[in-house]
Amino acid sequence: MTSLLVLLCCVASAQLPNVYALRHEGVLADVAVADVTGDGRGDICALSMRETAGHEVWLSLYLARPDGSYPQTPDIRHALPLTTGGVFFAETDGAAPIEIVAVDHTGAYIFSLRDNALALIAEPRFFSLFPAGLLAPRFLEHHAVDITGDGIHEWLVPLPNGYALRSPEKEIAVINCHVDGSVAQTSGRRTQLNYGLPGVVPFDHAGAENGQALAFISSRTVEFVHGPDWDNVVTVPIPFRGTPPQNTHAHSGGYADTFPKPPQPQPHAELHDLNNNGRPDLIVTEAEGGLNVETHTRVYYAKPDHTFPEEPDIHFRKPGAYAQPTVIDVNGDGLNDIFFFELSFGIRSMVSYLVRRKVRLGFEAYLNSPEGFSSSPDLQTRFTVDVSDDERPGVLALGHFTGNGRMDAVFSQDGEKLGLFEGEANRLVAQRPTAEFDIPPFGVAKTCVLHENGREDLVVFEPGAEEPAYIYALVF
Description:
By secondary structure, the chain is mainly beta. Helix content is 2%, strand content 44%.
């Protein structure tokens, strides 16, 4: 066990984490958290990049200890099948621990942790658009969901025309839905195929078999699907006021993609249940205007017939700024609130960014209540953030880390050290870090639960980092 020194700039109320540096062998591709031992604690799982064609992808497991610590080196390092392009976690037999599912275009390989080693327990074969042989495999989120409520996950398998809903043993249904796609001929006689599968949101539906339904959101439509054969479909166009987003591998337009550098705003839509009636509501964000840019976020509450109103139920307008909404429980009351990263696009702000390498960043929160949302932010905090000359994106994470019931933030204000900004009662988060950590503030941060103690934790890593590559676990 290795714990990093935590540089304390703290207030007495903060719950400071233990920080563990986990060494990864090979080039790091991706990291995820799952309870692969069945002991109720989150284990840290890492995928290596494929060094050359035909070489293995390695899965490394760092198993949580009873005292909340993690080992410096992996407990298990296992070579996955050569064609593995993605990995997800699914309960396949109804008994802990959860299984590890490696996938490619021809099917899946199901592994279970037994006697401190990974054992291959099944190899179901089926056609799919799951990737195969990628240089950088990924952990695939949201591809396993318990539709029937029996404790066993069904899989959402990507197809050119939507998804196949299946178990390891059989296909249950093929769900046809809108798939964004494109094909291009490039130089060197290359053909580029691009499929953009819709996001999937399960929700309760009184008229559906087993009470379950699925909502699919693509770049242009929302499709509500239910029925015994999953063929009862309601399709609703997303009401973008301008040009809909294009199918591209570029960043989504979310500020966390480019932090702290200014993003390239793109139209964006998400589904979240904001009024707590069990139906997913639609949040649409667009930047409008030229030099005098302003961001509009419109919220449409879903109707019982799975449609949305013509005019938004809520409209947030941010003049002179790019504002990216995120749905999170800010004040710990169990309701989904709307949080904005706000970045000014005014002349002074752009000069400050180009000349002084500083940006003015605003955090704003609109709190949810049975009466709805207010027209002005309930909580806000503003910062001046240094922008590093480094081209790598910086870490930006939100979560309930300190256990005070309020949302906290983790990012770097000086471009050198990662800081914890504690949630406060009278403003959103503290303007100065409660604690700073000697961790490079670049890469990806994933908020997770490593131990069931009422606080969320954080895993920080940099995809593509070569040896020595480290995964940092902040255990609160």
